[in-house]
Design goal:
alpha/beta, globular, 15 strands, two-stranded antiparallel sheet
Length: about 450
């Protein structure tokens, strides 16, 4: 390999290369003969805590009940996951089973990392999952894996802060969103913000790009054109979103420099748009104060507009270079479509049970209704409902870089470095150059 894979920073390339050289070579793979089981490796970002334990449970179950094929999990932190996929692949040390963020699928397919799902698995995925989840796991009309985490975006709000401001229900339209944001904003006598009405934040992709694209979808717009060759945000819908965000910042209802994750759970943010994974974190971090947290659909521009929001997610697929694809798909089929009992004759897939156990969802709406009907967090239900109308994040080959460019320009708008017009022009020029070039 002569250089870093396209789109990877030098820091991340150096890090992954160091990990590779320092002992992350592919583990021994058995022959499958009696006494020497075949070992599949599964590489994910479930590196610590409850996610690591949740995945290890079914893997241990598989290993205890299958003699010929065993599965060994490997994990890296999410920020290094794409780099690790690309570097290990180029070095001939790729894992058999991969769990990519679906945004990367176009890039991974173009690089020859992912193998298309066999016809029987593709049929099961298309039949068993919602359209947004299937779209996220597909590239060019071909399905490449089983959707795992299915994340839709909705409006988190603090019931106490709305109630104290005389607001009786969560906003349903953008006019109500702005009104509620301004009414719930609080400052001390020196002008310091005590409570943000709406939590726009430059903290990470989820709070910058995720919120912007959820609002864009709610306005009927899209980030990238249907053919994936140009940006579509420079449109009336895109302009309306950036105008809305600009007003919220300029009128003091949002302070983008604040870490919204910390501020919301401490009662310093009244509303924020984020993904369903956050419910589990909030519940564990806030204790009794979590009872004041509620979730509603993303507001739409005008009364009567059809609901829409953003869907993101992860999937499990098989490496195009795996020497044991049949066995890898067998394990994925067992994990993602094989069913286990959850009482009173009801059954769900192992992956659905895994995700709900950590406060997340899969794209299998029937499983989610079964599990949430058994005492699950009611704040997950709006995210479940959104599976029926969410728009999948575009996963064209240049999608990760396009997302980074969008974040940079949105943050420049929020911090006063660019106007709405300048931001739209710059996004169009930079993203068009990225997604239209040959990968």
């Amino acid at each position: 390999m002569t250089g870093a894979p396209r789109g990877l920073s030098r820091r991340r390339f150096t890090l992954a290369a160091a990990l590779l050289a320092g002992g992350c070579a592919a583990p021994h793979q058995g022959t499958g003969r009696p006494g020497d089981p075949l070992v599949l490796t599964l590489l994910s970002h479930y590196a610590s805590g409850e996610l690591k334990a949740a995945l290890q449970g079914p893997v241990d179950e598989w290993n205890a009940t299958h003699d010929r094929v065993k599965v060994r999990t490997k994990a890296v932190e999410f920020n290094d996951l794409l780099t690790t996929f690309m570097v290990r692949q180029a070095a001939g040390q790729g894992a058999d089973i991969l769990q990519p963020y679906c945004l990367w699928n176009g890039q991974l397919v173009r690089a020859g990392v992912l193998r298309p799902a066999p016809p029987e698995d593709a049929a099961e995925i298309t039949r068993g999952y919602g359209a947004a989840a299937v779209g996220s796991a597909s590239v060019g009309g071909k399905v490449y894996g089983y959707p795992t985490e299915a994340q839709t975006y909705a409006l988190y709000y603090n019931k106490r802060l709305l109630r104290e401001s005389g607001v009786t229900h969560p906003p349903r339209t953008w006019r109500e969103l702005e009104d509620t944001a301004y009414r719930t904003t609080r400052r001390d006598r020196y002008g310091n913000t005590l409570v943000q009405g709406f939590g726009l934040s430059t903290y990470d992709d989820s709070t910058t790009v995720g919120q912007t694209l959820a609002l864009l979808n709610a306005a009927g717009g899209t980030f990238v054109s249907e053919d994936g060759r140009r940006t579509a945000i420079d449109s009336p819908a895109g302009r309306a979103v950036l105008d809305l965000e600009h007003r919220l910042v300029s009128r003091g209802a949002s302070e983008p420099g604040v870490n919204v994750y910390n501020a919301f759970r401490s009662g310093q943010v009244a509303m924020v748009i984020s993904a369903g994974w956050w419910t589990g974190s909030l519940k564990s971090q806030m204790g009794d104060a979590y009872r004041e947290v509620a979730v509603a659909p993303v507001p739409v521009p005008e009364p009567g507009d059809k609901p829409a929001t953003l869907a993101t997610g992860f999937m499990l697929g098989v490496n195009a270079s795996s020497r044991h694809p049949r066995e890898a798909w067998e394990f994925l089929r067992w994990l993602n479509s094989g069913r286990v009992g959850v009482g009173r004759g009801a059954t769900v897939t192992r992956m659905s049970a895994l995700q709900v156990s950590v406060g997340s969802l899969t794209g299998r709406a029937d499983d989610m209704r079964t599990l949430l009907g058994k005492g699950g967090d009611p704040n997950l239900r709006p995210f479940l409902d959104a599976l029926g109308y969410a728009v999948p994040e575009p996963n064209v080959p240049g999608a990760q870089q396009a997302k980074s460019l969008l974040r940079k320009n949105v943050e420049a708008l929020w911090t006063g470095q660019r106007s709405v017009d300048e931001s739209l022009r710059t996004i169009r020029r930079q993203v068009d150059q990225e997604v239209s070039r040959s990968w």
